[in-house]
Amino acid sequence: MRVFVLLMGVMLLNGCIVAPTPEGRMVRMVDNQSEYNCKFVTTVTGSGSAGWTTAHDAEGAMNEIMNKAAKAGANAVRVVNIDSNIDTTVVVGEALNCQFDY
């Protein structure tokens, strides 16, 4: 019983933040599509809740849209909207294929 209570406590303290995948880490954030000759792929949405703070929730939501963009074959994301309240943060973005000068 003690082990169960301890495990539940650890899970509650850690929160539920979506981690970036290796592919999601490769997705870049852009603020101006035309600067990189970007082509729209799809709309991506991410949400975060149960983090310690709104910042944790936002981090999880951002990781989620970058992971989804990578899964859709995009190499960039432009954030369109962020809606945050005391419980949840929701991020909406455009997954894009851009021509970057590496």
Identify the notable features of this structure and list them briefly:
102 residues, DUF4156 domain-containing protein, signal, Translation Initiation Factor IF3, DUF4156
Characterise the protein shown here.
With 102 residues, this protein is of the alpha+beta class. It has one domain: Hypothetical protein apc22750. Chain B (Translation Initiation Factor IF3). The protein is built from three helices and four strands; from the N terminus they run H-H-E-E-H-E-E. A four-stranded mixed β-sheet has the order 1-3-4-2. A hairpin with a 3-residue loop joins strand 3 (76-84) and strand 4. The longest helix is centred in the middle third of the chain and has 18 residues, at 54-71. Residues 3-14 have low confidence and may be disordered.
The total tally of domains equals: 1
Percent of residues in helical segments? Answer: 25-40%
Average per-residue pLDDT, rounded, comes to 83
Main sheet attributes: strand count, strand direction, barrel closure: 4 strands, mixed
Query: Could you spell the SSE succession in H and E letters?
Result: HHEEHEE
Distance between the termini: 55 Å
Structural class: alpha+beta
The CATH first-level class comes to: Alpha Beta
**What proportion of the residues form beta strands (DSSP E)?**
25-35%
Strand order of the biggest β-sheet: 1-3-4-2
Protein name: DUF4156 domain-containing protein
Organism: Aliivibrio fischeri
Keywords: Signal
Signal peptide: 1-19
